[in-house]
Amino acid sequence: MLKIGITGGIGSGKTIVCKMFEILGVPVYYADERAKWLTNNDLQLRKEIKELLGRQAYDEQGQYNRKWVAAQVFNNPELLKMLNSLIHPRVFADTDQWFLQNQDAPYILREAALMNAAGDNNDFDAVILVNAPVGIRIARTKKRDPQRSEEEIKAIMTRQKTEEQFASIANYTIINDDEHLLIPQVLELHEKLSTQA
């Protein structure tokens, strides 16, 4: 089984590309979604997050208080690093379990905004980059998250990899710029990866 990472900056369209692969029968692990699930459902992780950030990390309904937590760590890199050191190992353990459940698939995708090149502290065989121009990414994100200002979106972008850094880790690139057709690119890559597997 090939393990393929799929990444891209905010608004690049990673999710829509992943959904296309899922339609083709490819299992996809959504790291950010699973991280959200784990912060709410992993009791040990909840306990550790409360110890680090205080009880306000969870709202009155007992749900992870994402907005409040984001405000605490936004300008505090050290605190963000500590929070990530709690969450990331849980996500990696969860991923490993998911890999085992899907080991009969020719290849699987793990989607995440944070990613290294294949073989660089991970067991990926290759990395797919979903790429789009910055202007399009900002417009898409504003449409998807109307509560976010352009300044907020740009601030998120500055904390992610640059275009050059993303390009440097990619073995394959899918261009999602509203000009290149997505489906033929996904089908061609699916064919290639299925053959390699």
Automatic annotation (TrEMBL):
Question: What top-tier enzyme class does this entry carry?
Answer: transferase
Q: Name one GO molecular function term.
A: dephospho-CoA kinase activity
Pathway(s) where this gene product acts: Cofactor biosynthesis; coenzyme A biosynthesis; CoA from (R)-pantothenate: step 5/5
Instruction: Identify the EC number(s).
Output: 2.7.1.24
UniProt key word Nucleotide-binding:
yes
What CDD domains does the database record attribute to this sequence? DPCK
Q: What does it catalyze?
A: 3'-dephospho-CoA + ATP = ADP + CoA + H(+)
Principal localization reads cytoplasm
User: Per the similarity annotation, which family is this?
Assistant: Belongs to the CoaE family.
- Show the NCBIfam families listed in the entry: dephospho-CoA kinase (TIGR00152)
Task: From the Swiss-Prot or TrEMBL record, give the protein name.
Answer: Dephospho-CoA kinase
List the source organism.
Answer: Emticicia soli
Give the classification, highest ranks: Bacteria, Pseudomonadati, Bacteroidota, Cytophagia, Cytophagales
Q: Which gene encodes it?
A: coaE
